[in-house]
């Protein structure tokens, strides 16, 4: 509804009335939490979520099949709406039943666990998910079913750790991401500290973002010390990530950013955003308003295996092997040397089929291919688990 631009306030008010009358279910409480966040009130949304999860941790999503073909248990953390894999999109119309278990410090895992065929960790590598990942990891050795995206591997995805994991791969460029404090940046702005003192490869201009931020919140390119000073004056956060700026514009002056989805070790095209600005994400690239951009994205999708994936076959294979996750996404570009430029790898990026099929007729078949690969992976791992148990 939010993606289509539907006004969510009437539904919000309806759910608030149910809460006031004492007839709202726990699932409706989570719906209300999500709506509050979509309307921009993150604090209220998280407060509602915390109240609901204090009493209920297990939720069943609607299933397309009356008799599900498979039961998946998603292991989630109590975090904002961008902090867990939006797995519902991947399973829509699959006939696979989805149960989501929120893993929370101080609340024991249910005994016995909900009946399922395969589990998958959907919590992210973030501070808010540390407790959930630790609890799952401690229980993983005695888990009765296969667990996909194990927490020890999810824990390698935060920006600074990802650089350490995949740097040195031939044909791959990933700028070092360095954690810094507000005080350190302030010292740099006042010339009391040089960027090289923080990390040898750092020099102006730099890219900065608050630690733990997503979707471009607080992201900025800082060209000089005065820009650093102005940036800090507007930010209340105390910890940031910084990295060197890479100019990845093509000869036409446009920047091209790609999202690749990795399912069971194989890369798939997810989308391509084209814009005249370096800080692209799909929703600010104006793809819906430009037929030429859409034709280029269509070509990227249709010829992905023979062109983009073939050009970067070695780098992608090595990165997929080092990351080791069953499912994750890569946000990337190509630098001026033709290398694969990595911005981020994540297990919680949105992969969906909500775009207009009239405007983007090439997208539904590609997204269905991703969803079918995801379902096939779940079935295969569940079957292996049954065979191992036998």
Describe this structure in words.
The chain is α/β, with parallel strands linked by helices. The protein has helices spanning 9-21, 26-38, 42-53, 87-91, 130-140, 151-154, 159-166, 182-189, 195-198, 225-234, 291-302, 308-311, 313-323, 363-389; strands at residues 58-60, 70-76, 96-102, 118-121, 147-148, 172-173, 178-181, 206-210, 220-222, 239-244, 255-263, 266-275, 327-334, 340-346. A five-stranded mixed beta sheet has the order 1-3-2-4-5, sandwiched between helices. A five-stranded mixed beta sheet has the order 6-14-13-11-12. β2 (70-76), α4 (87-91) and β3 (96-102) form a beta-alpha-beta unit. α8 runs antiparallel to α10 (225-234). The mean pLDDT is 94.
Q: What's this model, at a glance?
A:
The chain has 390 residues and is an alpha/beta fold.
């Amino acid at each position: 509804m939010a993606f289509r631009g539907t006004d969510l306030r009437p539904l919000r008010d309806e759910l608030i009335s149910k809460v006031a009358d004492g007839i709202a279910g726990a699932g409706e409480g989570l719906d209300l939490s999500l709506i509050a966040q979509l309307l921009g009130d993150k604090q209220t949304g998280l407060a509602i979520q915390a109240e609901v999860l204090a009493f209920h941790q297990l939720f069943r999503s609607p299933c397309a099949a009356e008799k599900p073909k498979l039961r998946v248990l998603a292991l989630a953390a109590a975090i904002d709406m961008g902090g867990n894999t939006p797995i519902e999109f991947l399973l829509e119309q699959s006939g696979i039943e989805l149960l989501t278990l929120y893993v929370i410090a101080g609340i024991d895992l249910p005994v016995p666990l909900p009946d399922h065929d395969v589990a998958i960790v959907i919590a992210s590598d973030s501070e808010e998910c540390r407790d959930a990942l630790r609890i799952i990891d401690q229980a993983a050795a005695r888990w009765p079913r296969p667990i996909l995206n194990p927490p020890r591997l999810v824990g390698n995805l935060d920006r600074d750790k990802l650089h350490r994991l995949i740097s040195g791969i031939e044909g791959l460029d990933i700028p070092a991401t360095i954690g810094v404090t507000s005080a350190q940046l302030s010292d740099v702005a006042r010339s009391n500290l040089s960027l090289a003192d923080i990390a040898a490869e750092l020099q102006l201009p730099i890219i900065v973002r608050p630690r733990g931020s997503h979707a471009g919140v607080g992201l900025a390119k800082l060209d000089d010390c005065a820009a650093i000073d102005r940036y800090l004056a507007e930010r209340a956060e105390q910890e940031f990530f910084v990295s060197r700026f890479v100019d990845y514009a093509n000869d036409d002056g446009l920047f091209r950013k790609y999202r690749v989805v990795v399912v069971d070790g194989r890369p798939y095209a997810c989308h391509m955003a084209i814009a005249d600005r370096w800080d692209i994400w799909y929703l600010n690239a104006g793809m819906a308003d430009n037929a030429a951009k859409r034709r280029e994205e269509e070509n990227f999708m249709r010829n992905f295996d023979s062109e983009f994936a073939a050009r970067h076959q070695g780098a992608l294979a090595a990165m997929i092997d080092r990351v080791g996750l069953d499912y994750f996404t890569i946000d990337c570009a190509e630098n001026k040397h033709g290398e694969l430029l990595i911005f981020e790898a994540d297990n919680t990026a949105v992969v969906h089929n909500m775009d207009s099929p009239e405007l983007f007729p090439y997208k539904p078949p590609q997204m269905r291919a991703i969803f079918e690969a995801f379902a096939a992976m779940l079935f295969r791992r569940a079957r292996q688990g049954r065979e191992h148990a036998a």
